[in-house]
Please model this.
Amino acid sequence: MSETKATGTVTSYLSFQLGNEMFAADVGKVLEILELRPITKVPRSPEYMRGVINLRGNVLPVLDTRIKFGMEVKEDTIDTCIVVLNVLMEGEPLTLGALVDSVEEVLELGEGDIEPPPSIGSKFNPEYLHGMVKRDENFIMVLNIDKVFSVDELVIATQTADEAAEKVNEKE
Model:
């Protein structure tokens, strides 16, 4: 772990892997990490919407982060997990699951450790990125998790989860 370059606030970030890329999200947005479990596909849902799971009696929409970032789809592995996030949608909190290839570690970063995102050359929407951190010879992209999922995508995810919950309630 490198020393922070600036004295000031240190924030914890959960790092995770998607393909060969490393990402990090503010742990304040992470509610929990779940082992992969069966995900119920919801008909007519967007490609990035993997489906829904039952999380302690609540329907949780699960989004495939690889598809969201335009990455190649690959088979789930033993390391694939669901990061349960609390994101803001038009100022309102929304809970959703983000499928990631693996969770790595919690990083303690000061603002001085995080460099601004590149203005060109990144294959990811710069609005998604809070910045980048250099670790050894690799970069970790620090996400602005509230901006990764657009309002439209979050509305669709919420509606899909609500529709799935209604179908479950109708069966009971």
About this structure: The chain has one domain: 10-171. The domain at 10-171 is CATH 2.40.50.180 (OB fold (Dihydrolipoamide Acetyltransferase, E2P)). The chain has a mean pLDDT of 83. The beta strands are 10-18, 21-26, 30-35, 49-55, 58-64, 81-89, 92-100, 102-110, 129-135, 138-143.
